[in-house]
Design a protein that fits this description.
The chain has two domains: 171 residues, Rossmann fold (3-Layer(aba) Sandwich), CATH 3.40.50.1220; 83 residues, SIR2/SIRT2 'Small Domain' (2-Layer Sandwich), CATH 3.30.1600. The radius of gyration is 19 Å and the shape is elongated. The strands form three sheets. A six-stranded parallel β-sheet has the order 5-4-1-9-10-11, sandwiched between helices. Strands 7-6-8 form a three-stranded antiparallel β-sheet, covered by helices on one side. It has a two-stranded antiparallel ribbon with strand order 2-3. β4, α7 and β5 form a beta-alpha-beta unit. The protein contains 13 helices and eleven strands. It is of the alpha/beta class.
Length: 277
């Protein structure tokens, strides 16, 4: 839970921000909907007699070596995401998005919960992709398409795609295998697929950067925070655990941080923002 002085400081900071607003979310906000964090115990996957860590499995190299295992892991993770529901934090951000025209959401999460909650796709930058989509692994085209409905929304842990699923997970244009539409550890951000430049431009122009539930373990979010700080933005961090964004928020003149759950704190922040806008 958050103590009162922290929350009051935060509400004061957001009330003083009148320009563009960027919200940056990470795994913590989805964990409050029951989705295990990527690096937690549920992230591991057994291939033969060995447990693979996410950093080993979520790579082009692993997909080339064991494509069925990689797809099985992602389809299981997708099933977990599909069973989850947006929480109060997601819904509060949707209210903010619908009420203000200068709000941009940068999310590290691939679960699609922000969009399912009703956030506008145009102003939602899914910088690590979306687990509900796939694309041609042979790069015959740039299309990003939904995973076929025939795959279903449930998938048992440890299950691998069979002949039927392999057929469904084929590129309709060239017949090659498809891959999950997610950014892997041995890949780079780009604008076309992951809105890299758009996310950084929004952070550079932000008058308020609101960070919720991220550990700051990936490069683009950290760079976005640095750009916002450099331009003099107010920075607010909401997270139950210490993290680099909390340190950043507390290092700038218009910064504040609260230790607590996004679903409890973000609705209050959104109410204050809408009251002063």
């Amino acid at each position: 839970m958050t103590d009162a002085p922290d929350l009051e400081t935060i509400l004061g900071r957001v009330a003083g921000a009148s320009g563009p607003l960027v919200v940056l979310t990470g795994a913590g906000i989805s964990a409050e909907s029951g989705i295990p964090t990527f690096r937690g115990p549920e992230g591991y996957w057994r291939v033969g007699s060995r447990n693979y860590r996410p950093m080993e499995l979520a790579t082009q190299a692993a997909f080339r070596a064991v494509p069925d295992d990689v797809w099985g892991w992602y389809l299981y993770r997708r099933a977990v995401c599909r069973a989850a529901r947006p929480n109060a934090a997601h819904l509060a951000l949707v209210e903010l998005d619908r009420s203000l025209s200068d709000v941009f959401l940068v999310t590290q999460n691939v679960d699609g919960l922000h969009l399912r909650a009703g956030h506008s796709p145009e102003r939602t930058f899914q910088i690590h992709g979306n687990i509900d989509f796939m694309r041609c692994a042979a790069e015959c085209c740039r299309d990003v398409i939904p995973i076929p409905a025939a795959i279903g929304d449930s998938w048992e842990k440890g299950r691998l795609p069979g002949e039927r699923e392999r057929g469904l997970l084929r590129c309709a244009r060239c017949g090659a295998a498809t891959r999950p539409h997610v950014l892997w550890f041995d890949e780079c951000y780009d604008e076309e697929r992951y809105r890299y430049e758009s996310a950084l431009a929004a952070a550079r122009e932000a008058d308020l950067l609101l960070v919720a539930g991220t550990s700051g373990a990936t490069t683009l979010p950290v760079r976005a925070g640095e750009l916002a700080a450099r331009s003099g933005a107010a920075i607010v961090d909401v997270n139950p655990e210490p993290n680099p964004f909390r340190d950043l928020a507390l290092s700038v003149p218009r910064g504040a941080a609260a230790s607590g759950r996004s679903a409890e704190i973000l609705p209050e922040i959104v109410d204050r923002l809408l009251a002063v806008r």
